[in-house]
UniProtKB/TrEMBL annotation:
GO terms for molecular function: DNA binding. It comes from Brevibacillus aydinogluensis. Keywords: DNA-binding. This is DNA-binding protein.
Amino acid sequence: MNIKVSDLDHLKGEPLPFRLTLDADELKRRHQEIRGLTPVEVSGEAAKLGNLYYVKGELKSDVDFVCARCLKPFTRHTAVPFAETFAPAESAEDEDQDSDILPLEGDEIELNPLLQEDFLLAIPAFPLCEEECKGLCPECGVNRNEQACECKHERIDPRLAGLADFFKDSK
């Protein structure tokens, strides 16, 4: 979706509401942890204040993941707020290099690439079904969230294994 700068100029500071839906297949293809995705609904508003153009709103979707620790599939409702600021290209060049103000080239603000980036950056690289997920046992493979295992998880650094034998003899 594109927003015409001239429409915002004519509104003289009044917000211009918008709604759109992002392509779920494109987003799923671009992030390896997304297993499934409902259409990403976007609602927001754009306005011009001074010589800056502001776009803000929220992206909402239900995202299917597989837990990085226990490998259990789960779905999480995701709501991602976004806010972008644009300035005409000539005034944006005067701004500091670290500024969050994006240059506005042409007579339209192209939203889709920015919104896709905002959504994908909000998706975790290692999704967890729960923050306290215990994961799978590395010895027997049981899901430690569902049952306890009897495996001994004592790991000794091989460089210090000789010391472990030394302390066994002293008992």
